Amino acid sequence: MAAAALMLAVPRWTAAQTDQLAAARALFNADRLADAEAALRQILQEHADSADAHYLLAYVLFNENKPKPSLSEYAEGARYRPASATDLALMGCDSFLLEDYAAADKLLSKSLALNREHALPLYFLGRTRYMEGRFEDAAQLFVESLKVKPNYLHAELFLALSYQHLGKISQAEDTYKAALPHATDAGPWRGLGGLLASTGRVAEAIPYLQKAAEMSPEEARPHRELGAAYMTVGNSLDAQRELRKAADLDPKNPVTRSLLAQVYRSVGLNDRAAAEAARFRELTGHDLTSGSDDAATSSQAVVPHRNAVDADKRSGTAAESHPNNIQALFDLGRTEYNENRFDEAAAAFQRCLKLDPKNVKAEHNLGLAYERLGRKGDAMAAFRTAISWQTGAQARDAGPYLDLGRLTIDAHRSGEAVQYLFEAEKIAPRDMRVHRELGNAYLHMKMLPKARAELEKAVQLGPDEAGVHSMLAEVYRQQGLADKARAESQRYSALSAAQRTDAEP
Fold first, then answer.
1. Fewest Cβ atoms closer than 10 Å to its Cβ: which of 150, 319, 326, 328?
2. Where are the alpha helices (DSSP H) in 389-429?
């Protein structure tokens, strides 16, 4: 992370500055970071106990985006002189970049105990709490950072995101809008457009997404999100244009390929749709109409049947005979889903929702169908909607929380995912999948003790689930527990082999 972006003050140095240190600092100030690093390493060969040299080398390494060696040099410097508030802040930033959020929290808190009038440590502590899923704490820290440094764009964006996770949609919207007049990048425009689109105000979102794409013409994401919005309002020509731009800028993004296949199919360009589906298959290893095994089993509403064709006939006949029968439509949707006909499944769940708005099971299963169609953004929006409909209910369904958490991990936002999975655990504390996904989230966040505890619990609840043993083996490996890791890997191999044998005709 560049020094210019952080705008942190260079650490103080003692009065006894050698000519060599002065020359190294001059190289740093001239942005000759590699030369500055080499000069400081030469100094330390002769003066290994120089606190000034260790701290300056740590700062140079930090600006070279080398957080691990930077942190080591800060620790070495602290042997000879206590770290200042700025040093502690930079050590906290290094730990944050290394995804060691517990250490980042501790170091940034120590820095702020010495000096609470610096916006950057407040911001990064807010980022740390955000990654830990502590959105209320994060929001308070971003607010405090903005008091110290008004119009601090990064703090505004994460404050808006924190409000979204807390369900404070109007406050998130106001925060994005307050950032627009002084925005130097597309962030608040894209954020506001995404917020409006996710809450069903797609037509209102489009001008903001257009501005985001205009401000970041070389970034694929704004074009992809704008293309998806055009698809939602039925503007297929503009959707094709924006999605093609996104595909040109990021050819290996499977979501863009999936959206292009859908929009081409919707206008009868079947050859182009097939080509995009083939590219999606090359990138992901599976067809657009297939997905993870979890998606098929995550709902508690799976229709049991011995013969899928017979079930399809029974459900279809019931739905045709009683077109306003909500349960018949729902069963038809589940049957279509189990037969990998996800477009038809989505249509059945949508018909169900027209008859029974706020039907949580139908909305949840609509999200599952969207996921299997490669429409992960729509899937997550459906899961959020299903969650919102359960507010205040005495009996809640854990499925939407679990699946939203699962997809949020896939989107590399594990700290956010934990919040949803906590709610799923409250509802279904003995559901193996909840503990598996919590373990997966903690593993991504490098919080190994918590990952281990959740995955060991998942193994207890589902001892024959092969994937959990594989994940637990990885945790044990990272903790240096070779024997335990070997045992879990062997268990995984045995279960996987047994499942392959069972699957053979």
1. 150
2. 399-410, 414-427
